[in-house]
Amino acid sequence: MPQPLTTELLQWFLINKRNLPWRKTKDPYFIWLSEIIFQQTRISQGIDYYLRFVEKFPDVFSLAAASEDEVLKLWQGLGYYSRARNLLKTARQIVKEYNGIFPSDFSELMNLKGIGEYTASVILSVCYEKPYAVIDGNVNRLISRLYNIHDFIDVPAGQEKIRGKADKLIDLQHPGDFNEAMMDFGAMVCTPQNPDCNHCPLQKYCKAFEKGTVNMLPVKSPKKGIRKRSFHYFLIRTKKGVLLKQRTEKDIWHSLFDFPMVELNSEMSLNSEHLITYFGKALNSYKLIHETKHKLTHQELSIYFYEAFFDCIPRGFLDVSLNELNKYAVPKPVENFLKSVFQLTE
C-alpha cells in the first residue's frame, strides 16, 4: 500500500507532468539517450540535441555504426564530451553483446560505459517497471526538505540517507511514474530558489517547511578550488583554409579539434620566446583579434585568439578548407569564434 505522500505525489504528476518527447515511449534506447544528454544539461538547452540525435540515429544500431567524429560533432556545444564518447561505446557494446536489447539487470547495466546508478535506475523503473529509486538533483532537494536532512548530499553518507527515504516512498506498482514525479516536482514546485511552499500540495508532509529551514536545504560540501588556465590560440590561414589540430591528451575537450595553441600560466603574458619554442622560427608576426572567458565546473579559461603570419606554413597540423569546417567537432569558444570570423552556419 503506497504511503499517502506517494499517492498525492502521483496524483499531482498525472495532472502536471511535463510534456517531454522521450516520455511518449518506454523504449530503453530513447530513455537512455535522454538521460545521458541531460546528465549535465538543462532541459531547455538539451531538447534540440535530443531531437537531432533521434533523427540522425533512430535506434541503437544506427548509433553503434556511427563514427566518433560524427557523434562528437552532433554533441558539439553540450560539453562534458566524455558523455558522447561513452554513448558510442555503450551503443556498440549493446549491439555486440546484447543484440541491440538493453539488459534489464541492474549489475549488467552498471557494467556499460557511462551508465551509473542513476541512469540504470531510470531505465529499470521506466522501461521495465522495476522498483529502483532515482536520485538526481531535484530528488536530493525534495527529500532533503521533506525530511529536513542537513547531511551533505554529495558525500556517500548523505546519499545513503536520501536513497533510504526514496526507497521507502517508491510506488512498487508504478516505479517509473513515481521517479518521474519526484523529478518533475523538484523541477517545477520544490525549486532551488523561492519555492512556492504556500501552495505546495506536499506542504503538510514537509519537515523543512514546519521548521523554517526550506531555504537552507539541501546542503552540499564546500566547493573545490577553481583552476585558472590561459589558452592562446593561433588562427593560421592557408591557401586551402585554416590549420586545426585534434586534442589527444587526457584533458578537457578530448578528441575535439581546435587551433594550434600555447597554454601559459594565467599570470604570464605571451611573448616571442613561447612561440619560437612551439612553432620554431617560421613565425613572422601575430596580432590579437579576440579574447573571451569560458567557465567549466572546476576551471576558468581565459582564451585569446591571434591571427598568425608565417614565412612558411608549419607542419604537423590538419589543413581544413572553410567549406569543411562545419564537419569538425570543436569546443564551444572555438565554435563561437569561427562563426564570428567566417560567418559559418550549421
Structure explained in plain terms:
With 346 residues, the chain is α+β, with helices and mostly antiparallel strands. 42% of the residues lie in helices and 14% in strands. Strands 4-1-6-5 form a four-stranded mixed sheet. Strands 3-2-7 form a three-stranded antiparallel sheet, with no helix packed on it. Helix 1 packs across helix 11 and helix 2 runs antiparallel to helix 8 (117-128). The longest helix is centred in the first third of the chain and has 17 residues, at 82-98. The radius of gyration is 24 Å and the shape is elongated. The protein starts with a helix and ends with a helix. The mean pLDDT is 93.
- CATH top level assignment of the largest domain: Mainly Alpha
Spans where pLDDT lies below 50 across 5 or more residues? none
Q: What structural class results from the helix and strand content?
A: alpha+beta
What is the average per-residue confidence, as pLDDT, rounded to a whole number?
93
Q: Can you say what the CATH homologous superfamily of the largest domain is?
A: Hypothetical protein, domain 2
